[in-house]
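Everyone, describe these C-alpha cells:
***
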Amino acid sequence: MQTASAPPPYTSTTSTHLLRFVAIWVTAMGLLLLVLSSGQLFVWDDPGALLLAMAMTGGGAAVWLGCRWWLESLHRSNREFLLSEDGVSALAGRAAFARRVRTWSVVALVGFMVAGAVVIFAGSAMGCVGARDGACRLPEIDSSVFSASRSLAVGAGAAYVGLMILGRSHRLESDRIEMVIAEGQRRRMEGPIPGVSRSRWE
C-alpha cells in the first residue's frame, strides 16, 4: 500500500487582498484628485497636484491589476490543498475577517457622511463672507476646516469604495473555496468504501 504524497501547503490570500484594498484606495484618491486638478491640463502653471494624481492613479491601478493576477495564481496553486482532507482548515478566520471588513465599511461610510456634512456647512459659511449684515447667520469658519474636512471626506469615501470591493471579492473567494472543498469531499466519498479516503487504498 502506497502512501499518498502530502499536498503543497496552503498560501493565505489575506495579505494580497489587503494590498489590493490599498491599491484601490490610492487609485480612487488619484481619480478624485485628478478631477479636482484637471484645470492644470489647460494652464499648466502649477502641475504638482495633477502629476501626483496621475502617479497615484497609474501606480494604484498597476498594483490593483497585479494583485488580481496574483490572486488567480494563488487560487490555482491552492486547489490541490483544498481538495485534500485538510482543505477545510483554509476557512479558519475568514468569517471573522469578513465581519471586520463590514465594520470598517460602516466606519468609513459614517466618516464620509460626517465629513461631507462639515464640507457643506463650512462651504456655505465661507460663502457668507462679505455678505451684508443679516443676510447670513452662519458663523464664520476658518478655511482650514473646509480643507481638512474635504480631505477627510475624499479619503473616507475612497476607503468605503475599497472596503466594499474587498468585502465582495473576499466573499466570492470564500464561496469558491467552499465549492472546491465540497468537491474534494465528494471525491473521497466515491472511494472504494463510502466515507473512506481514496488515498488509503492506493
Observations:
- DSSP finds five helices and no strands in the chain.
